[in-house]
Amino acid sequence: MAGNADPTVHKTPPRNSTLSADSEAGLKSTPLAVGSAAVSEHISTVGVEVNDVRPWIARDVQNFEKCKADTMLQELLARCTGSSQNLSGSQKSKLLETALNAVLPICNVGAVAQEIKGHLTNFCDIEREPLTYAPFVKAANCALRELSKVNVDGIPAFKVDDKTNVLLHVNDPKPIYQDHQDKQSERKPDVVVVSHQTALGMKAHQTQESQVLTETACKSPKDNFQWTDVRSTLELKRPRKFLTHPPSVYKTDYVVPSPSAQYMEYRKDANGPAKPTGSTPATGSAQTPHEASNELRPLSQSSRGVKRKRDEDRTEEKEPIKPHPIVQNGLYVAEMFAAHIARQHVISFIVNNDYIYIWFCDRETTIQGAAINFVQDLPRWLVLLLIMQRMGYEQWGLNRVFEPEPGFLGKVMIEDAQIDLELDVKSKERVTHFGIRGRATTVFPVKSEALSGLQRDPCFLNESPELVAKLYWPEETRQSEPDILKEVYKIAQTDPDVRGHVPELVWFHKFKETSTSKIRVALGLKDAERAEQGSRVLYIIVFRKLIPITTLSGEEFIAAWWQVVKCHRALWKGGVLHRDVSPSNLMVYRLRGQYIGVLNDYDLSSFKRDGPRGLERTGTVPFMAVNLLSPAAIAGKVEHVYAHDAESLIWVLTWVCLRYEKGILLSTNRPLEEWLKADAYQCSKDKAHFWSAKMGDMCPSGSHKTSWKLVKKCFDGIHSIYLPSGYRKLTDESAFQLLLEGPMLEHESRRRTYS
Predict the structure, then answer these.
(1) Which residue ranges does the record annotate as region Disordered (predicted)?
(2) Cα–Cα dist 629/684, whole Å
(3) 284, 528, 602, 679: which has the fewest C-beta neighbours closer than 10 Å?
(4) Higher pLDDT, 685 or 1
């Protein structure tokens, strides 16, 4: 949970989405799930090319849920009313019908209708994708201007002087930058949705608002937009040369797309980049400027927050492979999530030929709305634009508690708990999430007058006055981390191996209203009775600050690591199964001149009496036991036993000894780097090869040389449980003695002999 932690990157296979409630009850362990959580929380150490993060974003978006176009429009319209939960299905259907009839005159009558049709005709006639941006934006903004006069019962009226009203703006080829710890992303979305105020920019006093709508927005901006100001993005693709012109008269009936175009699918060509389905590729189609723009690069102090000079230092960089538009959209969604604290969802769009697809993305999954042909079905496109025009910050997905408006940095008040929080979101110590699905953990320093005065339990020994806040989205069906810690603290009262070696929870709050189940029930994707299965909800937990164990070396590191080993063993015996051992979950604090080891992060833990719950992975691939990386284990058919976590503790020990020098991650030539990008199967092969062939050639860093004999002794034990006949099952106590206690006793004996 700290910025100095090494990456814990995994490339997980898809989880078994066909599991029923009955089959889940028979699982021996929680199967691995797709997602970007592990790579995202340590983006600074992934690498300089965005290709390193694309695979995880691809896994976030490839297994999307599907929803009918009108069902999506109905729900988004209902959300504009502010009372979507109180509207019945028939009321939502009536609301859409009313909205379609309200916008129909704009499609058919008068000069505005002809102007919109003219822009759409130009869009249809242009073959090169970049040249289609301007007519598309002109058509949309012309419609938005006219929609400002439309009133629909229940939908908020347009506010004429409100600078937060939105418009579409061409962005490509202008890059949008964002800092992710000490790396910086650079992306070039084709078209963005921004406020009038953002579009006017620094020259608001010189530019008339009508000029922005008709001229300025059709060109790339002079100044770079910021992700905090971008409400949404539109990724445009034009694989088809010829598109049918607008009809002479529009009706409100849904124009049904061809079966191949109803939804965009993510399919990879074995010999090339993935392509959108339902499209006829144009011969010699043009490459768009943004195809080489999706890179992460180191962030220097001199380049923070300012315009960058890029072209002269790009000669040695590799040209990234063109990503699939669904993945491209996913990268933009991840940027919009990262730009805001506790953002609840992102709504984005992909335009493929003359079809527009609505994407609703939250921490559970992505949902794709069926295609709307905005040329042939203009009324539905205008209803979508009406929704975009009338949605407030909350409907766009911003969390009003933490960010009443974009860029808010003031004090936060959790009103129902009467707790004040001063979040240091700009801190260099902030650990941010880059991704879409998963827990999306964000950690940053926090101050609170109310929390500082709380009485402390004497079993906590950490004397640090500093606090950190952890915002994350756990699965609702899992035991909550506060519930797990409550049991942990009971064990700590009587067990000295646990007391002082677990994190101190100061305060927590569950935001029940943020459940991701609500949208799925509303769209008919989930039955209300099983809505919580797989759904996520926002938590905030405040802890006393800890230090990454990776900052230690030599005997200080070994002593703290051994304290964590004993704490983990005691908790397992007490019925608390951690099941996610990784370097980032081993921490320390100072007490009377010594470092004390802490076993941290219990959000994937469980009680032995309850068995596995939820669908999320329980483990981080580079540190998981090889026996848990088999196809059977990935499917949840292998029981997660103590020996597996014991093996994980050895992998962490090995990892730190090879990759850290005097508490700092090696900048180059880091051993085991390939494990960060390997899938479960490949990583299991790499690990087996490591201990059978490579280990003898490995050299630990200078500050960890004294620990290497302990590592080798631990691997003697691992050798003895992976037999040609299969995995050797051990009792928990036998596993502890063979893999950990025996090697440590020998290490201590050797140290005393030579000291």
Answers:
(1) 1-25, 268-322
(2) 6
(3) 284
(4) 685
Residues near 736 by Cβ (< 8 Å), separated by ≥ 6? 569, 642, 646
CA distances, 213 to each of 167, 168, 200, 546, 610 (Å): 7, 8, 10, 51, 59
- Dihedral sign for Cα 606, 608, 614, 619, please: positive
DSSP label at residue 158: P
pLDDT exceeding 70 applies to what percent of the chain?
82
Which value, to the nearest 10 degrees, does the dihedral of the CA atoms of residues 208, 211, 212, 214 take?
160
CA distances from residue 274 to 280, 287, 289, 327, 352 in whole angstroms, order as listed: 14, 15, 18, 9, 14
Give the containing element (helix H, strand E) for 661: strand 660-661
pTM of the model: 0.85
Residue pLDDT, tens place only, 551-583 = 999 999 999 999 999 999 999 999 999 999 999
pLDDT beyond 60 at 210: yes
DSSP string, 257-287: PPGGGSS--EE--TTS--EESS--PPTTPPP
Contact of 355 with 261, CB cutoff 8 Å: yes
Lowest mean pLDDT among 119-123, 335-339, 603-607, 713-717: 603-607
* Among candidate residues 231, 278, 263, 479, the one with its CA nearest the CA of residue 366: 263
Bond preceding residue 173 cis, omega within 30 of 0: yes
Residue 367, pLDDT > 70, answer yes
The alpha carbon torsion through 270, 273, 274, 279 (nearest 10 deg) reads: -110
- The two structure tokens encoding residue 106: 């704009």
Specify the residue for token string 């942990």: 488
Kindly list the distances between the CA atom of residue 37 and the CA atoms of 129, 616, 644, in Å, as whole numbers in the listed order.
33, 11, 22
Which uninterrupted H or E stretch holds 563? helix 554-573
For the cut 50, the answer to whether the pLDDT of residue 50 exceeds it is no
pLDDT of 718 > 50? The answer is yes
DSSP output for 50-115 = GGGTHHHHHHHHTT-EEE-HHHHHHHHHHHHHT-GGG--HHHHHHHHHHHHHHHHHHHHSHHHHHH
pLDDT of residue 252: 96
